[in-house]
Amino acid sequence: xxxxxxxxxxxxxxxxxxxxxxxxxxxxxxxxxxxxxxxxxxxxxxxxxxxxxxxxxxxxxxxxxxxxxxxxxxxxxxxxxxxxxxxxxxxxxxxxxxxxxxxxxxxxxxxxxxxxxxxxxxxxxxxxxxxxxxxxxxxxxxxxxxxxxxxxxxxxxxxxxxxxxxxxxxxxxxxxxxxxxxxxxxxxxxxxxxxxxxxxxxxxxxxxxxxxxxxxxxxxxxxxxxxxxxxxxxxxxxxxxxxxxxxxxxxxxxxxxxxxxxxxxxxxxxxxxxxxxxxxxxxxxxxxxxxxxxxxxxxxxxxxxxxxxxxxxxxxxxxxxxxxxxxxxxxxxxxxxxxxxxxxxxxxxxxxxxxxxxxxxxxxxxxxxxxxxxxxxxxxxxxxxxxxxxxxxxxxxxxxxxx
Length: 403
Hints:
Number of helices: 18
Strand content: 5-15%
Strand order of the largest sheet: 1-2-5-4-3
């Protein structure tokens, strides 16, 4: 889709798509000028860029234009925001380095997800990728020790909200269908999501164990080496993560564009084979399809036949994307329908429904803090949690209609 001819989108949305394409050499930067010559709601543009976490990319592209068309007040506000983002990213990098040292000292294998490591790996500059927290993957058996390290460093458990000890968290993890718990440092204002899986229990990303940990690469940031995904695993993770959350941020498609530019020689046939092996071909196809439709990123040759065969399904799922619709609430029913659509085959679809409805999430533990011997009770509380969410959403919708 050429964003210039996309009459069904607002100018600001098309402009953000254009700037993203220009940043990665997909279109001539002068095309951006054609948009800027139109009437642009600058406040709406900045707000939309902030929601989609691409303020640094927008600033980079606008700053590269020869023609000074951006109002001075807007330019100053954008520069200030980007500077704040850069400072926060540096703070997160420093904190990640400190946590990495503690985890290594405790002989805990870890993998930073997204954050400063992904920024350096894809953009070559941690200031160019906007993020809001640190995501760290550890092995399931190391969750308790990792949680204790975070707590001793001053972090407090945020999700679940109940005051579980590190020992209790280690016992709780096997019961959860979610794949991370959340900690927050009140003084540093840094949030850490501690992951023990790359996807939920419906096998969204089952390439763990030795298949993942024995195949890691490394990224050097300021003289410190951090582990990271191998290239084939990284692009799978980007596609599956984006599809899982309905591609609600343009920054996730920007990550794909940056990957395509950085890893031109990747073996796409190997990527396709691995995607089929782990039962995640459709999420990958959806990511490829959206990247092509929104940013005109060419479809890799290894996937062209699959995309053509699934085109009708992919178009329907692309219309369910939350891109530029972050304010649209996702109800439980629409969420489960979408997750079922990502699965191929009756067995995976049925398993997704059962696990979504009955397997507890970290948020389920917010309802009631149970002792470890009663953790199985959370399986009964999960349907209660979903029903409560449904009632609240219906009540809110009724209030909106009455207004």
